[in-house]
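Sequence, please.
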């Protein structure tokens, strides 16, 4: 036994440090619920639009209960999410960009819906952990579906058209002239809608196994005025029907699938010989250790991603922290000839596979 694992007495300083850390985590976890409420009820927006104001003014603007709004505001101040002085509350420009403005590329409030959905899944996770490990994507609370879109969409808006597509040799030029694009595991369809707005000559189809997400994606395409060129179909990743695509995308979905190698084979067969499969997966750390990113993704993967793959019959699910080497091996196994990291962000690997 080495010194790291040898039994020892509790160190009071280390104990207090851990208790402090737990208290901070507990506060953040509790506070996440107030972020969902503030986002859903327009409380952050009212603060952003109204400038410094009393709690009763926020309540009046939003039609919410004044006493609860005051409590909520004080919770925000305690978390550093809202400013306060002499009974008036307001948001800084930075707080506005992260909490009140969904059109901002740093809008993060949607992430709290995903946090909340994981907590809704605890009862089901208990049976999964002691049973066959599976939880279907469709078994989750609706916050997961809407929250996933709201959580990821700002990053897609910041990166997909300006950075990710140009990183794929020749694809931007092809989409300018036309071209056929698919998104497999499309969820609420946000990336395809962004692509359709940027490339008006191209046509787009999104596939997802989850009926509710496909319906939401169709509504979003109608609202964005692109439903003549963007279609969404309920279809699994191993059986969608389209062919001859110039570009197939998969955004943070591969690790949810039961047999990603078979799905990748199907994707390869649906590409033109000179087509490209671009897929994003979360960044990973070199080694297992303390990391905010790994903490987030391993946690959500324990309740959502890995159980989804297991529910679809995965022998050894990828999980949301598979890493580039394992993903490259998967792509090779599926018969792709070329694989590379096209680009990346601090959060995502953007990977490119060609037949
Ligand atoms: C994490 S979400 C990502 C959604 C979307 N790509 C995005 O980035 O917003 C994973 C998606 O994969 C879909 N999915 C899971 N298993 C699937 C399968 N076997 N075939 C097709 N879609 C699947 C889920 O329904 C869900 O919409």
């Amino acid at each position: 036994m080495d010194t790291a694992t040898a039994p020892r007495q509790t160190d009071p300083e280390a104990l207090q440090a851990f208790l402090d850390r737990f208290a901070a985590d507990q506060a953040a976890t509790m506070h996440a619920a107030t972020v969902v409420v503030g986002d859903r009820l327009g409380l952050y927006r009212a603060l952003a639009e109204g400038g410094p104001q009393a709690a009763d003014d926020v309540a009046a603007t939003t039609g919410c209960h004044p006493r609860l709004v005051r409590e909520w505001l004080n919770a925000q101040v305690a978390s550093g999410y809202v400013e306060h002085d002499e009974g008036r509350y307001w948001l800084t420009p930075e707080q506005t960009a992260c909490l009140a403005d969904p059109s901002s590329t740093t809008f993060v409030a949607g992430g709290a819906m995903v946090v909340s959905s994981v907590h809704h899944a605890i009862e089901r996770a208990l049976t999964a952990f002691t049973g066959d490990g599976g939880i279907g994507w469709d078994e989750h609370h609706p916050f997961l579906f809407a929250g996933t879109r709201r959580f990821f969409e700002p990053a897609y808006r910041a990166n997909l058209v300006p950075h990710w597509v140009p990183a794929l040799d020749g694809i931007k030029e092809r989409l300018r002239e036309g071209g056929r694009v698919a998104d497999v595991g499309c969820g609420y369809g946000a990336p395809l809608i962004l692509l359709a707005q940027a490339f008006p000559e191209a046509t787009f189809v999104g596939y997802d196994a989850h009926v509710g997400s496909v319906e939401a994606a169709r509504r979003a395409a109608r609202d964005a005025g692109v439903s003549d060129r963007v279609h969404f179909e309920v279809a699994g990743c191993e059986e969608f029907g389209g062919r001859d695509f110039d570009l197939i995308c998969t955004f943070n979905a591969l690790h949810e699938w039961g047999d990603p190698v078979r799905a990748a084979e199907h994707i390869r067969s649906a590409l033109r010989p000179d087509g490209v499969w671009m897929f994003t997966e979360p960044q990973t750390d070199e080694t297992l250790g303390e990391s905010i990113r790994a903490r987030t993704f391993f946690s959500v993967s324990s309740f959502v991603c890995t159980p989804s793959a297991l529910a679809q019959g995965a022998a050894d699910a990828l999980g949301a922290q598979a890493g580039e080497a394992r993903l490259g091996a998967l792509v090779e196994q599926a018969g792709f000839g070329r694989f590379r990291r096209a680009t990346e962000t601090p959060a995502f690997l953007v990977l490119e596979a060609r037949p």
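The chain has two domains: 12-100, 115-354.
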